[in-house]
């Protein structure tokens, strides 16, 4: 949203203002200031950096925002979750927003489906900011296609024995806990037979094989290729019913679609702000760049698309507030595919109108542009979001009174 959203309630506006203040004055200060965010981009992060960040976020109630306070959440709404994630992407960086976001959707899933053991042992300390968290869905042979994941867990007494590999796993080297979908039954491709395990980061048999240090953007998370080799995980660390995790995963993704696109939009808005200020100050042929329509209309287009994406995202959050995590699949997928494409296009346009200096680290715009590119894959690629939208849109648009047999024979009678 360009400027403040006049349609937020007074409580929501106050929440956003306080969140921004806390981020600027308490979270992203000292070790976590803007210089430090650039150091993360050079992969100079440490486990202690992430631990300190989570401690500060937990103290400010910015983790697991929709989870009740009894479990150390903020007892807030999904709309507040979206507002906070957008602000973190805008004020800090999207890798910080991502770590917080993991607590939003993993926390909510633990709260909705976890046993008291899971809630007490993992959820409460996680939301107090005592843990760095990782989510390990993606595998070498199955990314988008979660039903084909190959990591298996066999039951042996009161433990699962886990074997398999995952890749692109942010925060894996630092994680105190990992949220890991595995197959405990059924065949590859089945929706039945999937389970989610909470795995301690120091579990024997869990190892980091390789770090993706040189990838395009999203640096500083220690993203890694990991392996579980005969790793023993207590059965009591299963979330909900073993074999029934498909719906937990898809519900969780409804929230994740929203948070990923929201923090990327927050970052893109920051890039656009740099472009606006820069083009007003930079003169070419004796007049500011902002006075050239070729430039200012690009900003106009970006501003309009950012606002449209914000509105789609906020609508998806309000649907979750009203109807719960299982709702709003299509609206969440719309928000993600449109939001992530817009965020990337806006960051790229910001670089374009700023000229060559935007490709240097003098401004954070090139980092934002690299970072938001990842949003077009993470949590489901844009093409997958479009597949969800087309599926649900066809369902909603289908008219039982439309007689398809008359299509191509309209001279005999109209189908509608
Ligand atoms: C920076 C970054 C951070 C990440 N962090 C994590 C993490 O912390 N944890 C984690 O588990 N994963 C993480 N991922 C992985 C991410 O979720 C996957 O990259 C994503 O789910 C896509 O999987 P894939 O890369 O295996 O691509 P594939 O599934 O192989 O798909 C490749 C491409 O094919 C197309 N495609 C796929 N399916 C369809 C379809 N149904 N219809 C049309 N087109 C389709 C899309 O263009 C897609 O990009 C991260 C990825 C990135 C880039």
How would you characterize the overall build of this protein?
With 416 residues, the protein is of the alpha+beta class. The protein has three domains: 10-131, Butyryl-Coa Dehydrogenase, subunit A, domain 1, CATH 1.10.540.10; 135-244, Butyryl-CoA Dehydrogenase, subunit A, domain 2 (Beta Barrel); 246-397, Butyryl-CoA Dehydrogenase, subunit A, domain 3 (Up-down Bundle), CATH 1.20.140. It has helices at residues 10-27, 34-41, 47-59, 78-91, 94-113, 116-127, 245-281, 293-323, 329-354, 365-374, 382-397, and strands at 133-135, 152-156, 159-169, 177-183, 194-200, 206-211, 224-234, 283-284, 287-288. It has a four-stranded antiparallel beta sheet, with no helix packed on it. Strands 1-4-5 form a three-stranded mixed beta sheet, covered by helices on one side. Strands 8-9 form a two-stranded antiparallel ribbon. It is globular. The relative contact order is 0.11. Flavin-adenine dinucleotide (FAD) is lined by residues 135-138, 143-144, 168-170, 218, 223, 374, 377-381, 383-384, 387.
């Amino acid at each position: 949203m360009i400027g403040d959203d006049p349609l937020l309630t007074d409580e929501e506006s106050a929440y956003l203002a306080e969140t921004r203040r806390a981020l600027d004055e308490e979270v992203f200060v000292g070790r976590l200031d803007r210089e430090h965010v650039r150091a993360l981009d050079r992969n100079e992060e440490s486990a202690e950096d992430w631990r300190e960040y989570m401690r500060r976020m937990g103290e400010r109630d910015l983790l697991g925002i929709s989870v009740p306070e009894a479990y150390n959440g903020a007892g807030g709404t999904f709309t507040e979750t979206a507002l906070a994630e957008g602000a973190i992407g805008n004020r800090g960086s999207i890798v910080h927003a991502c770590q917080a976001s993991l607590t939003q959707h993993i926390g909510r899933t633990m709260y909705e489906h976890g046993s008291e053991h899971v809630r007490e042992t993992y959820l409460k300390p996680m939301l107090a900011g005592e843990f760095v968290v990782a989510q390990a869905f993606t595998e070498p042979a199955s990314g988008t296609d979660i039903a084909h994941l190959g990591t298996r867990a066999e039951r042996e007494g009161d433990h699962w024995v886990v074997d398999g590999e995952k890749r692109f796993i942010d925060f894996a080297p630092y994680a105190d806990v990992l949220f890991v979908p595995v197959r405990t039954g059924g065949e590859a491709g089945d929706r039945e037979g999937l389970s989610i395990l909470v795995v301690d980061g120091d579990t024997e048999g869990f190892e980091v094989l390789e770090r993706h240090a040189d990838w395009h953007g999203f640096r500083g998370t220690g993203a890694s290729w990991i392996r579980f080799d005969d790793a023993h995980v207590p059965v009591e660390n299963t979330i909900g019913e073993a074999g029934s995790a498909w719906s937990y995963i898809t519900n969780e993704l409804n929230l994740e679609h929203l948070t990923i696109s929201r923090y990327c939009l927050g970052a893109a808005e920051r890039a656009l702000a740099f472009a606006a200020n820069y083009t007003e100050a930079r003169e070419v042929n004796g007049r500011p760049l902002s006075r050239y329509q070729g430039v200012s209309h690009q900003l106009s287009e970006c501003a309009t698309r950012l606002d449209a994406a914000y509105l789609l995202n906020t609508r998806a959050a309000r649907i979750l507030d009203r109807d719960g995590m299982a709702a709003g699949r299509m609206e969440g997928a719309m928000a993600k595919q449109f939001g992530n494409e817009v965020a990337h296009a806006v960051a790229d346009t910001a670089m374009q109108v700023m000229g060559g200096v935007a490709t240097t680290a003098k401004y954070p715009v090139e980092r934002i542009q690299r970072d938001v590119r990842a949003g077009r894959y993470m949590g489901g690629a844009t093409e997958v979001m479009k597949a969800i939208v087309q599926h649900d849109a066809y369902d909603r648009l289908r008219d039982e009174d439309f007689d398809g047999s008359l299509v191509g024979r309209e001279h005999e009678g109209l189908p509608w």
